[in-house]
C-alpha cells in the first residue's frame, strides 16, 4: 500500500501515470493541448475558461460498470473564449481525437469575470480623470490616487447598459496606508468599467455626497494588534498529530475512507465536485449520489437606494468558486496529516496556471459516535467518531467562504460552510439615518443587510439513478382530543408528499413541521421498515429569498425562489457511445446547451449581465416541461439555503466565522447502524461488570488538567 | 499560578478550603449536615433530594458586587423527603445557622423518581405472579423470569390512578442472554407499580397479544461485533495533546478562560448550571447572563394507542438530569487535558453519595476563527479559534443526552446536545401495520415516533439585569417592484417586535423569516450602531409541540406550547438581607414557592403525576400576571427547542449521535470583533508581500499525508 502510494505520488508529480480518470479535471498539459487545437483554427482570443467537459452520465455510468469492454470516455474540453468586440465563443474540443467538436459565437452573453479581469480595473480607475475628479470632491487629492482601491464586481444587470458590452462596477475604497483595511474607507461613488475598451464609461454619483471617512484605521493585521496591546498570551497549544498517517487512500483522485469511495473533481465554477459516491455496505458498493456540488449562489443586498440594487453577486456564476480559491500553500488551514490537490486553469493568454494546494483533504476526530450506559450496572459502550473533510476556501473580494464537505462513518454527508472575511461597506455621513437597510459598524461605515443564498446541486443515485423525492412534514394525527382514535391528542406522524412533476416539486421550507426532503429509491424497500431506501435532506438555515417577486434579483436568481426544485435528468440514450454522440454533435451544434447533462448552472451558463428576462437556468428548464414525470427516474434536486445577515459592529473589521450546515442522512438505506464495527474507546458488558474484564480501549494520551492528587499530568481514567 | 492550582486541587480533595462559594453545590459534608438537622425534628423519612437552595438573585448580586461589606449568603439546603404513606415534605434548612427555616407537608404531589426508586421495580416485577402469568402468555416460562427486565418510568399521568399514590409504569423487555440488548425484545404489556407498597397494582394488556420476539439478538457490544467479522482496522489514531496544559484556570468552581468568567454549578434536576457569566471587554468585566441551564424537557411519543400516551418523559423534572449523569471515570469521553468535577447527592437513606467526574471541562480546536485574503497580492491573515466545553452526559433509561455548553472566543455561547443511546421500542407482530405511528427497525421491533423538546432557561444579565426581549424577523421592505422607494424590489430589513408583556411574548418559530430573539439592554446603546447591547438567540431546530392543544402532553408540558416565553423575575427587595428574608420565611411558610427566584422548573417543582389541570410552572406564572411589564426589567427567557424523530433502521441497535445546536451571539454588545488579539496562525500584509517578511506562525506539527516528492512525513507549508 505504501509503495502504491509512492507510485501514485510520483506519478502525480511527473505526469507519467496512465490516462487520467475520465472525471479528473484537465491537467496543465491538457489545457495547453486544448488551446493549441483551437488556435489552429481561431485567433485573437482571450481565454475565459478551459475546463473538463464531463463525460455524459449515461456514458460514464456504463464505463464505470464495465471499464474493460466499454469504450473509455474521451477527454473533452469545455471552452469559453472572448474575441475582439466582446464576442463570446463557446467551444467543445475533443482532446482524445485532437479536434474541435463544436465552436460557436454566442450572442448577448457575458462570461464570468476572472481574477485577471478584476486586477486590471484598479489601475484604470486610478488614472481616469473623472474618477480623480470625484475623489477630489470627497477629499482625496490627485497625488493620493495610489491610495484609492476598488473591488471590481460584475455590474450584475443595469438596464441603462444592457448585456451587449462587458462591464464591471468598481466599488471604491481608500487606504491611508497600504496595509490599512480599505473597508473602513468606502467611497460614495461607483465607476462603471468597460472591459472591452478598458475605460470608465460612467460614474454613478449619489445625490448626497459623503466625504472621505476621517475615522482612525480599524485594522486586524499583526502590527495593529501589537500597537493596541499585543496578542493574548494565555492560549496553550493543542497539538493534533497522526503519527501513523491518515486513514484514507487515494487512487488518483478517487478517495476511499471508512466504506466511502468517491471521485474528487474541481472546476473553475463550482470548485469541488464529488462524483460517484458509494458506500460499501458489507461488501456491496452501494451508490448514493452521482454528483454533488455547490452550483451557484447569490448575495442580494437589501438597500433599495440606487445603485445598491446592483449588489447581488453570483459568486460562482459571475466569478467562479474555483478561480477564487485560496492556495493553502502559505499556511495550514487545517491540522494533522493533510493531503492537498492542486487546481489547474487557463489564463487569459491561454497558458495553464495552477493554484497549489487548492483542495485540502484531512480527517478530524468527531467526538462521540454513539454511547449507551445500562443504568442497572453502569456497563457501557462508548465509541468515538471520525470525519473526513474535503475543503476549499474562496475569497470573493471582501468575503471568505470556507466550504467543507464532511463524510461521517454513519453514512451521513454534511456540507458545512463558514462565512468569514470582511463586510461589504458603504460610506455614511455622521448621524446619517441608515433607514434600517444597514448598520453603522464603525464611524462612517455602513454595512448593508444582505443574504447569502447557496444552491446545492444534488444528482442522486440512491441505489441507482431512478429516484423519487418526497417532502416530509411532522404532522398531527387525525382525531380531536377525546376522540376514540386520538383520545389524548398525542398522535403524530411523518406526512409524505410525493413529488411527481417539476412544477409541483417547487417547495418552500417549513420550520414548524421540521420539513425535510427524502430522496428515495422506491424499488428498493428496506426489509425491516418497509420504506424505500433513501437519503434525507436535513437543512435548517433556509430563509426565503427576500428580494420581491418580479424584481431584479428574483428574475436573475430563479433558483432561489424556492428551497427545493426537482428537475428531470433525461438520458439521451444515443449518447452512450461516443460515435453516436459525435453524430449528435454534428447534427445539433447547440447540443451542449440542450442536453440535460449540461443543466449544471441554475442561473445559467453565462451569468453576468443577464437581465432575468427570461430567467436563465432552472426556471427555464422547468418551464420547458413543467409536467415531466419525475418519479422513479433520473432526477436532480436543487436546494437553496443560506442566511440573512444584519451586520453588527462585532462583524468588523473582520468577521468571526459564522458556520452553517446541512445533512444528507441515510434513512431506511441500511438495515442497521452501519458503523457498529468502529472500535469503541470503552466497552463493558453486564456479565463482565465487577470482574475487571470487558474493558476495551481508552485514550492513553488524554490527561487530567489539574492532577487530582496535586500532581499534574496524571492520565485520565487511571490508566 | 501552578502553585495556586495545586493548592486548589489539594483543597478540593481534602475539603480544607475556606467556605464554599455561595453558588457551589452542597458538599457531602453539607448534605450530611442538612440531613442531621432534619432528623433532629423529623423521623421516618426517605430522602428524595438535598440540594443547594441558591442564594436569591438580589442578595447574591449585592454580595458579588461588594463581598467585603455585604453579608455572605448563608448556605441553605432545599430538601424533598418522603414519609410513610407517600407523604411529601418540602423543607428549607439553613446550614449556616444550623436550623430548619421551613418544613411543610405538600399534598397531592409526587417528587421525581430517583435511580434507587428505579432499581427496585425490576426485582418486584420478576416475582409478581400476574407479571409471571403475562410473561407465560407471550412465551416466557416462569423459570426464565431472570431474563425479564424493565425500564421503570414515572407513570406520567393516568387518570385511572390520579396523583395521590406514587406510581411507576414498567416498560417490559427480555434478554435471551444477560449481555443482549433488551430493546430487541420488548414485551407487549405494562405493569403499574406502587412505590409506596412496592407492589404491582395493575397490568395494562393490549387487546391483541404479541408473542416474544423470535428474531436473533441485535447487539453492539464488542463480542457481537467480533462474531460478525470484527472491528474495522483501518482507522489510524488522531492524537490530541496539550503539552503545556489547559488555557483556563479554576478558582474553586469559577472558571476563567479567554475573557470569559463564570461559575459552574450542578444540581440533581438541571445538571450543569452556569452563573454570573461575564466577558472581560478590554478590562471591563461585562455581565452577559446571570444563570443558564437546561431547565426541563419532554419526550412525547406519537402513538395514540393505549397506554402509549403515557410515554412522554420529562427527563429532568421526573428523573433528574443530574441524578442520571454518567460518571466519566470509566472512560474519557473527551480528548486532551481534562478537568472533571464530581457531583454529590443524597441517597434515599439520607447518606451522601458522589458521581465522580460528572462534569467534564476541556478545550478544543475550533477551526478557522477568521480569515481574509487580499485578492490583489494574496496577503492574508488566518487565525484559528479555540472553544471551551463544559459537558455532561446523562442516561435516561434507553436514551443518552450529551450536553455541551460551548464558549467561543468571539463572545458566543453555544449549547450543543447530541442524542444517542437506544430507541424506546415496543413489540410488533410480523406484518403488523404500524399505522404510521412507528417504524419497524428490526423484525418484531416497533420504534414509535417521538419528539425531544428541551427547555433552555435564560436568566439574562446583558450589561445588567434590566433587559428587554425583541423578536426579530427578516422582512421585505415596503414598496412594490417599480415603486420609487423600492424600484428593484430588493429592500429588506430586520423587523423588531418589542415584547412588553408575558402574554404578548408567547412566540413561535418562523423559519421563513429566520426568526431570532434579541435580549437587549435598551439603556446601553452601541456607540457605532446606535442599537442596544444585546445577545441574540439563534436557534433553528424548533419544531412545534405536536401533541394537540388540550391533550395530556399539552396540558402537562406548558412550556413547550411556544418557542419562547418571557417572564418577569421580580426582586423581593425585602429579601436582600438575610434577616429580612428570615422574617419573610416565618411569615409566609409557602414563600419559596411564591418568590420569583424559585421559578426555575417550567413544568413545576414536582412533575410526576401532574394532571396538567391546572398546568404547572410556566403557564401558571404567566397567568398570575399576564400583563406584567417585561421591558427594561429583570426577566427570564424560556426557549423550547429540539427535534422530531421518525425512527429508521439506521438508528438501531444503537443510534449514531444526532447533534443539535443553538447560539447566544453578542450583537451590538462590542464595538468590534472581540477576538482580534487571538494570535494568527499566519499573517502577511501588502507591504511585506514578496519581501519574505510578515509571515507569522504556522502549525509546525501538521504534515503532508502523502509526501509530494514521494517522501512521507514532510511538513506542511514547507516548514
From TrEMBL, chains A, B:
Assembly notes: Homodimer.
InterPro entries, alphabetized: Cu_Am_Ox_Cu-bd, Cu_Am_ox_TPQ-bd, Cu_amine_oxidase, Cu_amine_oxidase_C, Cu_amine_oxidase_C_sf, Cu_amine_oxidase_N-reg, Cu_amine_oxidase_N2, Cu_amine_oxidase_N3
Name this protein carries in UniProt: Amine oxidase
One GO BP annotation of this record: amine metabolic process
Residues modified as 2',4',5'-topaquinone: 399
Similarity annotation: Belongs to the copper/topaquinone oxidase family.
SUPFAM superfamilies xrefs: Amine oxidase catalytic domain, Amine oxidase N-terminal region
A GO term for molecular function: primary methylamine oxidase activity
Domain Copper amine oxidase catalytic, residue spans: 238-568, 596-676
Catalytic residues identified in the record: 315 (proton acceptor), 399 (schiff-base intermediate with substrate)
Keywords: Copper, Disulfide bond, Manganese, Metal-binding, Oxidoreductase, TPQ
